[in-house]
Amino acid sequence: MKYNFDEIIDRSGTSATKMESLPKGCPDDALPLWVADMDFACAEPILKALHERIDKKIFGYTMYDTDECLGAVLNWYKKRYGWEEQKENLFFCGGIVSAYAVLLNLLTKEGEGVVIQRPIYYPFTMKANSNGRQIVDSPLIYADGNYTIDFDDLDKKMAEPNNKVLVFCSPHNPAGRVWTEEEIRKVVDICKKYDKWIICDEIHCDLLRCGMTFHPILKVAPDYADRIAVCTAPSKTFNLAGMKTSNIVIHNKELQAAWKELIGGKLSMNGAGTLGLTAMIAAYNEGEEWLEQLKEYLDGNFAYIDAFLKEHLPKAHMVPSEGTYLAWIDFNGYVDGDAEKLEEIMQKKARVALDEGYIFGDAGRGFERINIATPRSVVEDCMDRILKAFKEEKLV
Hints:
With 396 residues, the chain is α/β, with parallel strands linked by helices.
């Protein structure tokens, strides 16, 4: 079927975080393009499956580790990426941030180092800090308007005995890079050299620009699978964040046992939601047509913003997006690192609620992350508001 991504859906009255819990300082009428969920209706097969499950009338305890559920996940990996995985290596968690926190507690001790590559998804920093771990930054290189990995610096950071884990974001949020096989192999080889763990966040793996190819880390480096934990989920791909379902891939048998003991034995966090599993199974089994149409629509939104900036705000630069639905825009040509000024303009003048670049680390100062998984008319409104605000500030 043909999906209508131009449809404006009223999300009021749904307790939507994106709409009803705007970033501090934003006026109530700010256009919400911050937190990463979509303003698009879910794929019809997902909605149909949910309606059919509701008609069963009972929502008792529901198992994750069934052939139907695990088969849907593993078939998706194989079909989309040629990634062959085994059922016994797949584990449930209610979300990737939760899984990340659990893995930190299993793989590190308080005071030990966790290496990240800023600018990076800010909960990686928050959860490490709140669990008493030491964040160690190996920043990406920003040059010629794009990002690459600083392999020399990463080698130095991973060589430190106190640094136990690398958090590898693939595709990268917010930089939008889809790492090549060669880049992933180099990252793995550095960690292998020092026998360090990798927690790999692959939540955005399905959300690529048309023509891009995603390389699962466990397919690129099966020889190091024993020291890698991979986090995937249908939440970003199919707009199911509220369903609280993610799939964690662990090969190491000792870590598997520790995961089961902590998640199930100590915390009782191993229970999956009935409707979450229903939605995930339907998404992986029948959601591919919707996803392919979505990718084309997102490509159009990115192209619109890029053209708009080049015409109206030429000193701003949208970093080329290879993956995610998050536009990462460098406004330093106008604010020269003054993140507070930029935030004031966006929130008070433009009345747009975005993720300010500085929350991703100092390397993000002067940047904005804009969630463009929204109808084109909303993207146009956002850019018009920003341009008007910059004109009022006499920046253009």
